[in-house]
Amino acid sequence: VQLQASGGGLVQAGGSLRLSCAASGFTFDDYAIGWFRQAPGKEREGVSCISSSDGSTYYADSVKGRFTISSDNAKNTVYLQMNSLKPEDTAVYYCAADRGAYYSGSYPCGYGDGMDYWGKGTLVTVSS
User: Fold this and answer.
1) Are 49 and 63 in contact (CB under 8 A)?
2) CA nearest to 49, candidates 93, 89, 85
3) pLDDT for residue 25
4) Of 42, 43, 40, 48, the residue nearest 125 (C-alpha)
5) CA 21 to CA 48: how far, in whole Å?
6) Cβ–Cβ < 8 Å for 92, 121
7) Measured CA distances, 74 to 5, 49, 71, 77, 78 (Å)
8) Mean pLDDT along residues 41-57
9) Model pLDDT for residues 51-77, shown as the tens digit of each residue
10) Rounded distance, CA 2 to CA 38, Å?
11) Which of 35, 37, 92, 102 is 20 to 30 A (C-alpha) from 17?
């Protein structure tokens, strides 16, 4: 099982990045995928998650209107398009998979404690 996150980097405030999470070794269609982030000295937080059943999504309030999660099942890849980046978005971003989980505005990602698989993170640094 492998989840490979990529696409992080250094960007100025107001800029954009697109993160990718490439999955292998499990039945991608059966798993919800989430993006989580952890900044130095802070708790991990769920940024955005997408359900496998109907593609419903959850966004943390801090990223609503700026980030968009999407899934390409043919490529077993989930993307996180991040626009209008702010210095407070600086963190290590991780993707994770949870079999059968459902996410929406009413069902948040949480802290990711129940996720089945995790990938290594990709660092996003937003300069002011």
Assistant:
1) no
2) 93
3) 94
4) 40
5) 13
6) yes
7) 17, 18, 9, 8, 10
8) 95
9) 998 999 999 999 999 999 999 999 999
10) 20
11) 102
Residue pointed to by tokens 């292998």:
24
How far does Cα 13 stand from its chain's mean position?
Answer: 19
DSSP class per residue in 42-109: S--EEEEEE-TTT--EEE-TTTTTTEEEEEEGGGTEEEEEE-S--GGG-EEEEEEEEET---BTTB--
pLDDT value at 114 more than 90 = no
Return the closest-CA partner of residue 57 out of 33, 31, 76: 33
Distance in angstroms (rounded) separating the CA atoms of residues 73 and 59? 20
Percent of the chain residues past pLDDT 90, beyond the cut = 89
CA distance 20 to 57: 16
Q: Which residue has the tokens 């990709």?
A: 122
Q: What are phi and psi of 29, to 5 degrees?
A: -65, -20
